[in-house]
Amino acid sequence: MTSIALCTIHSSARSIARLCQVSRSAHGTADFHSFVARYSTLRKCAFLLGGKWSFIRAGTRQMSQASPGRILLGRYGVFLAAGAAAVTGVLTAGVSHFQRAEMATKISKVEEEEGNIRERCKSFMSVPVTDIKVLEQRKDAMSARMEMLIMETQAAFCRALEEVDGGSFRVDRWSRKEGGGGISCVMQDGKVFEKAGVNVSVVFGNLTEEAAKQMRSRGKVLKGKDGKLPFCAMGVSSVIHPKNPHIPTVHFNYRYFEIEEGDGTKQWWFGGGTDLTPVYIDLEDAAHFHKTLKEACDKHHPKYYPDFKKWCDNYFYIRHRGETRGIGGIFFDDLDSPNQEEVFNFVKSCAKTVVPCYLPIVNKHLNDSFTPEEMDWQQVRRGRYVEFNLVYDRGVKFGLATPGSRIESILMSLPLTARWEYMHEPTKGTKEAEMLEVLRNPKEWI
């Protein structure tokens, strides 16, 4: 009976490997739902894939941990230990065949999505910070893949904004003698945007003690050698300040960080997010913005959106004012699990939302009329934006603490104009008061 069951599993695995593309759930476990109906023998079986058991029983999936080389069969999960060499050989052959097929699927998907580096570079606002030949040689390294992603994100967002505004971005390349550099794209005094910046930076070198302290304060245990901590940091960051007070300011930032410790081991993590800062509340805009972000998060884990939405509200909080900077979005940092590939794919999904979550809102309000009083309120809210960025923003602090950083690019996030009125308080019952109430009491938008 055991031999029959194992042979059936082996046969099914080979058939599945040939015929099916295996998708992965948020936990990294193969999802068999699409073919359970076809392979009825699998309904009461379990495979070990990537170190995790996937159980399929009557159309439902459960997850548990088990030791390699074991199979769970039947209603009560009877263990069949792989003690006999013949049984082990059959099982291993079936699973490794399945895993090879799964790996081939992943590689082909990566190649299909990420494609030829030289061809992809043709659509960028500038050639990448890292030499194209080096990127080609290191195309499988996460640093190279992330640099290509942030360059593509910059180009896609800049092109979309140029189409709406009719203007063009000034593209500045800059280098840092300590290592690396960046590409700043800024459009100023446009038809729609008073100031729009979309920056890419790729820097490396050794962390200063001040920068290392900031990371240790976040719980990072960093062990350098001879007082040095080699690092590599890269990201794309954007802040858009429109002229019309009915078009919100938007910010996004997606970044990757790598540190090499004294013993040669590496720590890595991703961070970022996208958030909206309107001058006036529009419920439809808020719902669209958050829904777009939630859909991207839900592709990877159901807890990402609620957790990162809350994190965003807490992070973009002006403590000395007792109010949030805007109506939030998502924010995360130090994200290094479940594994590098899955976190990168999540960041990629988020980066692809920057155009669809914002441009429909811009187009909706392009021709909205506004009054001088509404312009004044916009200037006051911009003042709050400045306060947050200079006092609390982690990226600004890190940039200012990093030798050789380009100050113009770091302070690109500040608006062209802002206003600080002494003891300003909006009149009760006005749209301005409604906006302030939301900022003092963040809410759920979807």
TrEMBL record:
Protein name as annotated: Oxygen-dependent coproporphyrinogen-III oxidase, mitochondrial
Keywords from the UniProt entry: Heme biosynthesis, Oxidoreductase, Porphyrin biosynthesis
Pathway involvement of the protein, from the record: Porphyrin-containing compound metabolism; protoporphyrin-IX biosynthesis; protoporphyrinogen-IX from coproporphyrinogen-III (O2 route): step 1/1
Complexes and interactors: Homodimer.
Lineage, highest ranks first: Eukaryota, Metazoa, Chordata, Craniata, Vertebrata
Reactions mediated catalytically: coproporphyrinogen III + O2 + 2 H(+) = protoporphyrinogen IX + 2 CO2 + 2 H2O
SUPFAM superfamilies: Coproporphyrinogen III oxidase (SSF102886)
EC nos: 1.3.3.3
A single GO BP: protoporphyrinogen IX biosynthetic process
Gene Ontology cellular component terms for the protein in this record: cytoplasm
The UniProt record lists the keyword Oxidoreductase: yes
Family annotation (NCBIfam families): PRK05330.1
Entry-linked Pfam families: Coprogen_oxidas
